[in-house]
Amino acid sequence: MKMKNIYLYLLIPVALIFTSCNKWLDIQPELEMRQTAMFESEQGFKDVLTGAYIRMATPELYGLNTTMKLPEMMAQNWTIPSENSSQAEIYYISNFDFTQTSTKDLLEKVWLQYYQTIININSILEHIDAKKDLFANGNYELIKGEALGLRAFLHFEILRYWGPIPSKVKAGDKAIPYVKMVTKNPQELLAVSYQEVIDNILTDLNNAEQLLANDPILTYSNAILNSPDNLQGVNQDLPHPEDEFHYFRQARFNYYAVKATKARYYLWIGKKTEALENALVVIDAQDNDAKSKFTLGSDAEANNGQLTFPTEQIFAVNSTLATQTLTPVFFNYSTAYTQSETSLKTAFETTLHSSDIRYRNNRLWESRVVPLASAAFNYFKKYNESGSTVTAITDIPLIRLVEMYFIATECGREDLFKVYRLSRVLDASIDGTLTDADAVKERLEKEYRKEFYGEGQMFFFYKRYAYGTLSWPVAKEVTEASYKLPFPESQMTFE
Fold first, then answer.
1. Which residues pair with 204 in a beta bridge?
2. Contact of 381 with 337, CB cutoff 8 Å
3. Beta partners for 318?
4. Distance CA 59, CA 110 (A)
5. For residue 369, what are the β-bridge partners?
6. What is the mean predicted confidence (pLDDT) over 370-391?
7. Which string of b and e fits 428-455 if b means at least 16 CB within 10 Å?
8. pLDDT value at position 147?
9. pLDDT band at 231 (very low <50, low <70, confident <90, very high)
10. Contacts from 294-299 at CB under 8 Å and sequence distance 24+?
11. pLDDT tens-digit readout, 446-464
C-alpha cells in the first residue's frame, strides 16, 4: 500500500507551517491571509487535509515517537540501559521519569504536534460548510468526514496518554483540552472534563460515520484502491474511482477506521457490547464479490518480510522519512533499540509456539555478530523491507484488523480467538484456556505483546487494566500516577 506521488511529495502548504512562539502557534497576518486563500478551491481543502496526514507521519508523531518510542519504552519493550549511558532517554522513559530535560522535551514535542495537527484539521472544518459548492464527486462528505474522524482519533490518542486510567476516573475530573477551533492562543487550550472529552470524541466519530456512508472503500476493493496505475489488461474493465482522490483509502481515515476507532473507544470506557458491535463490522466487512475486505496476515506475508501485515491495515500513515529515521533506531549497533533473545523467547512462548509465523526463521528479530563487538546483537526487523537491513518500510500501521479480533475476544467472542490463533500458527492447546475473564486477560496480554511489538499498543493495554506490576521482561512496579503523563510545562498554566 503506497500513497500516490501527489500525496508522497506534496510540499506542506505555507499556511500549515506554524512557527513556535511560547512553544505554541504564532500565525502571522500574512499567513492567515494565505490560509484563507487555501480554501478557495476543492484542491486547497485536499492539500490541507493531506498536510495533516503528512504531519502525523513525521518522526515527531507516528513516524517514531508515538509508535516505536514513547509507548514502547513505557511498556518495557526495549532493553533498558544504565542511566549514565548514551541511551539514557530509554532509561528515563522506561522508569516513567519525565523530570529530565530530554523527556520533558519529548512530551512537549508530542503534545504540540498533536494539537497543531488538530488545529490544521479544524481549519478545514471552519471553512468547509461555507464552501460546499466547490466540491464534486462526493468530496465534501469525504473530506469533512475524514477531518471529523481524525479530530476524534487524535484527541482519543491524547486522552490515552495524558488522561486518567479509565477505570479510575470520575466523569467530572479534568482531562485534556478538546479543541474545535483554529487558535493561536494557548490560553484557549483549557482542559475540560473527562465526560466532555469522551462525549466530543463520540460526537465527532458519529458525524464522521454518517458523512463517510459513501466512502469509496465501501464500493471498491482495497486491491483496486491501492493500484490506480495497474488497472490495465485483465483489470481494465473492473469498476474503479474516476477521482484520484478516492484511492489509497487505507492510508486515510476511512469508514472502517471510524468503526475500528469506535471499537477501541468503547472498550476503553468499558462498554463491551458497543465495542463488539463495531469490531464485528470491520471483521465481517466484505467486497462485492463476498471476499473479506481485510484479512488476517498470512505466513506468506510474514515470509516476505511484511510483518506489519498490509492486508490487515485499517488505517496507516505513510512516512517518506522512514529509512533515515529508523535506520539509527533499529539498524545501527551503537544506537539501536533491542531486547535480549532470552526475554523474547519467553514473550513469544517459543517452546509452546515454535511455528509462530512472526517469530520463526528470524523474521521479527535477528541476532547478528557485530564486527569488533564482544557479542552478537539482536536486531528488530518489523520495519525493514524484505532483504534489506537499512531500508525501512514506509507504511506505519495505526489500526490493524487483529486488534478487532482481540477486542471481540475480550467482549465474549472467544471463537474468534481461534481464527486469530490459526492465522499465526499457534499451538491449539491455548484454545481451551479462555475459561473466564481473568484467563482472557492473561492470554491477551501475551498476544498484544507479540502482535504489536514496535507499534505502541502494549502500554495502553496495561493502562486500561491498571496493571500495578508489569511482569515482563522483569517484574516492575508501576504506580497509578505513572500511567497519566504530566502536561508539558508550557501547558500547566492552562489546565
1. none
2. no
3. 395
4. 10
5. 376
6. 81
7. eebeeebeeeeebeebbbbbbbbbbbbb
8. 98
9. low
10. 294/222, 294/256, 294/401, 295/401, 296/401, 296/402, 296/405, 296/419, 296/420, 296/423, 297/357, 297/402, 297/423, 297/424, 298/357, 298/423, 299/357, 299/425
11. 999 999 999 999 999 999 9
Residue 302 confidence (pLDDT) above 50 = yes
What angle do the packed helices 101-127 and 139-162 form, to 10 degrees?
A: 150
Closest residue by Cα to residue 159 from 200, 120, 130: 200
Residue 155 has pLDDT above 80, yes or no: yes
Q: With H, G, I as helix, E, B as strand and everything else as coil, classify residue 477.
A: strand
Q: Do the beta carbons of residue 119 and residue 179 sit within 8 Å? A: yes
Burial group, residue 486, by CB count within 10 angstroms (0-12, 13-18, 19+): middle
- Reported pTM: 0.93
| Per-residue confidence (pLDDT) for residue 391, from 0 to 100 | 86
Banded pLDDT at 183 (limits 50, 70, 90)? confident
Beta strands per DSSP E along 272-412: 313-318, 365-369, 376-380, 395-400
Q: How far is CA 426 from CA 161, 246, 304, 316, 447, in A?
A: 32, 38, 19, 26, 11
The set of residues, in sequence order, having a beta carbon less than 8 Å from that of 54 and lying 6+ positions away, is 10, 12
Phi, psi of 242 (to 5 degrees): -85, -25
Read off the pLDDT band of 494 (50, 70, 90). Answer: low
Give how far Cα 371 sits from Cα of 50, 362, 364, 375, Å.
43, 20, 22, 9
Query: The C-alpha cell of 480 is what?
Result: 497509578
CA 269 – CA 98 distance, rounded (Å): 26
> H or E segment at 440?
helix 437-451
Torsion, Cα 93 96 100 105, to 10 degrees, reads 60
* Per-residue model confidence (pLDDT) at position 184: 72
Residue 61 phi/psi, 5-degree rounding, is: -120, -115
pLDDT at 172 > cutoff 70:
yes
Radius of gyration (Cα) for the chain, nearest Å? 22
DSSP alpha helices (H): ranges in 77-193? 88-94, 101-127, 139-162
* Strand runs labelled E in 345-438: 365-369, 376-380, 395-400
59: helix, coil or strand?
A: coil
Closest listed residue to residue 449, CA positions, set 348, 356, 343: 348
Query: Averaged over 237-263, what is the pLDDT?
Result: 93
Q: Output the CA–CA distances (angstroms, integers) from residue 34 to 9, 18, 30, 54, 314, in the order listed.
A: 21, 12, 6, 19, 34
Does 29 or 373 have the greater pLDDT score?
A: 373
